[in-house]
Amino acid sequence: TIELAQQIEKCHAMKTRRLQRAVVLHTLHGLVHSLAFAGIASVAGTTTGATKSTTTPIALLDLAYLDKKDIGFEPVSGGLSNRNFKLRIPSSASDWHFIVRIPGDLSLPPEHNYSRIHLVNRSMEARCARAASVAGVSPELIEYNGTSGVMLTRWLDGSVLTDKSLLTHIVTVARALRRFHDSVNLELPAGTRRFSALERANNYLSLSNELSVELPSSVAAVFQAARAADAALQKVPSVAATALHCDLIPANFIVTPPTTADVNEKLWIFDFEYCHFGDRVWDLANFIAFNKLNKGDRIKFLSAYGPVDDVLLESKLTVMMWLFTVSEGMWGVVQHSVSDLPFEADWAEGIASFREYGLQLLDSAALTLAEDSTLSSALDQIHRTAGTSSEAARQATDL
Q1: Short-list 167, 182, 380, CA closest to 283
Q2: Rounded to an integer, what distance in angstroms lies between the CA atom of residue 101 and that of residue 10?
């Protein structure tokens, strides 16, 4: 590996990139595949909390080989459900650094239906990660294993955003999200369904019923209203579909400092596990709702994002934000019952568990129905524009 690395330094830039990729993949050929099916029950003395796999534990891997070749491989903190590792490939000029993402589902027993519980579509994630990398809005994707979900990405020396730093970078975030929507082409097969937050919420509702999860009495009315809201959105004239991230939390953005090639800092988007496609307003609603933007920050964010050719933008934002609240609330109560993921309070300050987080959101959704006319006014506007019958509009807004 070291000899190949030295040869690479003598090559033309274009050839260097190809050879570099070959070196990395050669190095990872045994390593990543071993890790992918190792159960990752323990790494560097820490445990995932998952049921231990019957496959070979990481402790038995031949890590001495890495030491001999001076190849660095160490755990990286962060990530709610996945395990991340920093990979260093030595070079006499400057070392190359990469991030290896190993999906959390590989460390779980077969009966833990990860894709259903977390609604992660690996095929969609692969398409989005590749397209975003090509478009230059996400770190360079070196390799993606479509079967296991193991992903190798170029390491970025930057800072992951937090709740506080997000607000200072809100304009940069908005512009990066605009580039993502305008430039990422997923090339999806014909007939692929567009994104719907109600479908996600329905999945979690079905799971909660199967698992006898206790839900607040208001959930029935909330879902009746959610179905009416989704039906109203379906009647709106179709807009051009774009790639959607659907998980725009601060921790999914990285800011890198200025370089000699670029005098401005750059913001990158990553983690496309919940990627889908559809109306771009879903992502705008997701970002505003999850990060609880106040009126001033919301205006700043939308202004920096740029014009959206949609006369129903404000009404759709209101409805989609509310539907995301319902979906996220159901996600929280289901996670509490079925997941072994640790509860990370840094993104839900003052809340002690997934269930408390989910119930708070469901209560907020119910309170909006009972006391806030904003949602009904937005639905009324959507119905009027879509030409829905007055009786259907009345029934929906009465909810």
Answers
A1: 182
A2: 30
What single-letter DSSP state applies at residue 117? H
Reported pTM: 0.79
- Tell me whether strands 151-154 and 141-144 are parallel, antiparallel or unpaired: antiparallel
Do the bridges between strand 276-278 and strand 242-244 make them parallel or antiparallel, or are there none, so unpaired? Answer: antiparallel
Classify 211 in phi/psi space as left (phi over 0), alpha (psi -120 to 50) or beta.
alpha
Contacts for 127 with CB less than 8 Å, ≥ 6 apart = 186, 187, 188, 275
Minimal CA–CA distance to 21: which of 32, 10, 8, 34? Answer: 8
Q: How far apart are CA 87 and CA 102, in angstroms?
A: 13
C-alpha closest to that of 251 among 173, 353, 317? 173
Nearest to 40 by CA among 59, 66, 19, 20: 59
Asked if 380 contacts 393 with a C-beta cutoff of 8 angstroms, the reply is: yes
122-157 per-position pLDDT tens digit: 888 888 998 999 888 999 888 887 767 788 888 888
Q: What does DSSP assign to residue 78?
A: -
Alpha helices in the chain (DSSP H): 2-8, 13-36, 64-68, 114-118, 122-135, 163-168, 170-183, 197-210, 219-235, 281-290, 295-305, 313-338, 354-371, 374-386, 390-398
Which residue in 286, 257, 108 sits closest to 195, CA to CA? 286
Query: For residue 37, is pLDDT > 50?
Result: no
pLDDT in tens, 220-249: 999 999 999 999 999 887 788 899 999 999
